[in-house]
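Ticket #168: bound-state structure for zinc ion.
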Amino acid sequence: MPKVSSTKNSSDVLSIFLAKISAQQLHSRLRQVAQSRNTRGTDVDALLTALDRLGISVAPSRAAAKDNTFLHCVRCHKGYLERENGVESCKVEHNWDEGMRWGNGCRYQCESCGEYIEEISPGYGFDNETMCFTGTHTTDVDDVDFEEISADTCEENGCKPGNEGALT
Ligand SMILES: [Zn+2]
Ligand SMILES: [Zn+2]
Ligand SMILES: [Zn+2]
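RESOLUTION: The complex was predicted; output attached.
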């Protein structure tokens, strides 16, 4: 038997822990903890403080929790609060061109991103309901690639300054 030695190093334990849990599992466990009534606030505070000290900043989330400013997304033109903004908050639909015949059905291409959607056969609908863009809302036009996705500018969309749009 080869001789092996165990480790008492905390960082090793963290590495082993991470190797045994998928990103999705970890995310969903933490989400459960965040939503559970049995979670003690002091435990969560300790976790947040530790993350901050380890360089995984929760400062923007702390700031967002207190911020009651209504913002306007310059990509999807919805109103939002920063604390409700997440990686799937902002969605822009494709801009399908005129349908082309494709086998028995029809095929459309997004004029902006170039993605295709195909109808298997007439009347069966489409099996690829993706979005042209999914991400976080933004107030910065430099974050929006108007060439690559089918987003309108605020001007094209008729947004008025000071009008945050419908809250969703
Ligand atoms: Zn598209
Ligand atoms: Zn948006
Ligand atoms: Zn707008």
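RESOLUTION NOTES: The mean pLDDT is 89.
TICKET STATUS: resolved
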